[in-house]
Amino acid sequence: MIEIKNQLKLVPQLILTPQLKLTLKVLQLNILELNEYLLQEAQVNPFLEIEFRDLYSGRSQVENREDITLVDEFHWDEESLWERRVPSFSFEEGEDEIGSLIERTVGTEETLTQHLYWQLGFLELSPLQREIAGFIMGNLDDKGYLSVPVEELAIDINVLPEEVEKVRRLLQRLDPVGVASLDLRECLLVQLEFLGYKDSDLPYKLVAEHLSELVQNIETLSKKLDLPIADLQEAMEIIKNLEPFPARNFSSTKGLYIEPDLRFYKEEEEWKVEILNEKAPRVYLSPLYYKIIQNKRLLNNGKGKEFLKEKFKMAENLLKALDSRYSTLYKVGEAILKAQRDFLERGVSFLKPLTLKDLSQVTGLHESTISRVISHKYVDTPLGLYPLKFFFSTGYDTHKGESLSAVAIKNYIKEIVQTEDPKKPLSDSEIGSILSEKYGIKIARRTVTKYREELNIPSIRERRKKIS
């Protein structure tokens, strides 16, 4: 017989306090999301007042405010926030507990704009080209097509149409191939070109010259074009496998204007980090509402007093959460800047390996906290706009004792393919050999294949087919 025993076991549990819950929520918001959230909160909380302000200078959200003392009749257990300055909320204590909470949260679906910005980070572009790319991505519709004429976009940003078109052509060959096309025909043709088809090939000719007729019965189309049905079926099968809507597999592309949260800049030979917060309103406690508290009739009403107490506490928690967000974001930005200074001065080939664990050891923040901080946030640099996640990658040691990031290795692979003999394209094994001989990087062939595919570079067979 099985003997059943009752045992008491103490299991430590983390209580998700309102303050912690709000801090985690605010921490993950980018500047545009924060802006919307603060405006919403100010509309429903009489103790909050907002105004647009200049760049965040590192000072507390509640500094520079006029201290106000509440009347004696309105006190609760917590010390009045208006009688003291709110200390900055710190993650240094209980960091593991906060991290374990973050690890259980679900990430946000990637947008097309974010996916494109990530790929642009691997390309050697001028600041102007990155700016043009940003304007193009900001004008993509829900299908992934450019919604305004190139000439109109050029006028809006005061550049030549040829410059816009050059960047647009580059974007079209990123993943998903065909993005930023002007219409369905161009989108499909770009994909066929990428697959190695020429204008003399049947799939290409069908899309270029007979796209509107492809919906017809294949026998009718065969007679009209004087082509064998078998050839038409084969070509049609290729066309059916193309993607007519490049943005299909991404979350909504509406309202995806990218606003950086940070800026890396050089001043008198010294690199500095700045929190860009001019787009978010300054939030502080409204001095007008002390009059509400002086209303004895309202205070004698139990429901009214509880309402004011609840809203006051929510306002206090929000100001603490904002202080935490800015100080944590600054700390992470400063650590990234220090680690990736060579990249900012010398380019993508000098991006250093950097992991969440590395940054955790430097900042004292939990890895999951850092992950939350860098999620969907961007930094403005002299080289252009980059997602914070771009600066994180694994590394490989070279024969020279140096360490190179995966991003730097991808850049080398791109350069090797760009300079190869078009008539004799290199295999992944040959690319790996060049990496070893020229740069001292020992890397497996399957890793070369993985990085090549992530760079959207066709295989040796597809590259060879393009010139045949």
From TrEMBL:
Describe the location of the RNA polymerase sigma factor 54 DNA-binding domain by residue ranges.
306-465
Tell me, what is an example of a GO biological process annotation in this record?
DNA-templated transcription initiation
Q: Which GO terms describe its molecular function?
A: DNA binding; DNA-binding transcription activator activity; nucleotidyltransferase activity; sigma factor activity
InterPro entries hit by this protein: RNA_pol_sigma_54 (IPR000394), RNA_pol_sigma_54_core-bd (IPR007046), RNA_pol_sigma_54_DNA-bd (IPR007634), RpoN_core-bd_sf (IPR038709)
Give the Pfam families listed for this entry.
Sigma54_AID (PF00309), Sigma54_CBD (PF04963), Sigma54_DBD (PF04552)
UniProt protein name: RNA polymerase, sigma 54 subunit, RpoN
Q: What is the originating organism of this protein?
A: Caldimicrobium thiodismutans
Query: Which family would the database say this protein is a member of?
Result: Belongs to the sigma-54 factor family.
- Judging by the UniProt lineage, the source's domain of life is Bacteria
One GO cellular component assignment for this chain's record is: DNA-directed RNA polymerase complex
Q: Which residues form the RNA polymerase sigma factor 54 core-binding domain?
A: 103-289
What UniProt keywords apply to this chain's record, in alphabetical order? DNA-binding, DNA-directed RNA polymerase, Nucleotidyltransferase, Sigma factor, Transcription, Transcription regulation, Transferase
